[in-house]
């Protein structure tokens, strides 16, 4: 036999994990993320220091924008955010950074002439 009324149905759903228990807690069943600090989700720039990326220029500006975008994503775990940062850091190897800086200089010269 199923529940007799809506209250019993909600009790059953809570026991099955389909509803949050009262009082509602936004951190209910976070899993691995319970051990992670809020600061780790927001301040991602210090994580970039382990990579040999330039501190100024277009690559640094791009990586800053990536950090800001990831910090505003509440649905990703910290480990997933760090994987994204690692992938971008691997892409921007020294050879690639040099090529980007050359293209940026050419663009700056062209903008100054116009």
Automatic annotation (TrEMBL):
The keyword Nucleotide-binding does not apply. Keywords: Mitochondrion, Ribonucleoprotein, Ribosomal protein, Transit peptide. Its main location: mitochondrion. It holds the Pfam family MRP-S31. One of its GO terms (molecular function) is structural constituent of ribosome. It is found in: Mitochondrion. One of its GO terms (cellular component) is mitochondrial small ribosomal subunit. It comes from the Eukaryota. Belongs to the mitochondrion-specific ribosomal protein mS31 family. PANTHER family: MITOCHONDRIAL RIBOSOMAL PROTEIN S31, SMALL RIBOSOMAL SUBUNIT PROTEIN MS31. This is Small ribosomal subunit protein mS31. It comes from Panagrolaimus davidi.
């Amino acid at each position: 036999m199923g529940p007799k009324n809506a209250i019993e149905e909600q009790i059953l759903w809570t026991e099955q994990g389909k509803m949050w228990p009262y009082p509602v807690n936004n951190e209910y069943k976070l899993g691995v993320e319970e051990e992670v600090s809020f600061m780790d989700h927001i301040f991602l720039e210090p994580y970039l220091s382990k990579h040999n990326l330039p501190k100024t220029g277009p690559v640094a500006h791009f990586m800053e924008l990536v950090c800001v975008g990831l910090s505003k994503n509440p649905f990703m775990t910290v480990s997933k955010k760090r994987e994204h940062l690692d992938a971008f850091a691997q892409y921007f190897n020294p050879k690639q950074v040099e090529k980007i800086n050359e293209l940026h200089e050419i663009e700056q010269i062209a903008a100054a002439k116009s």
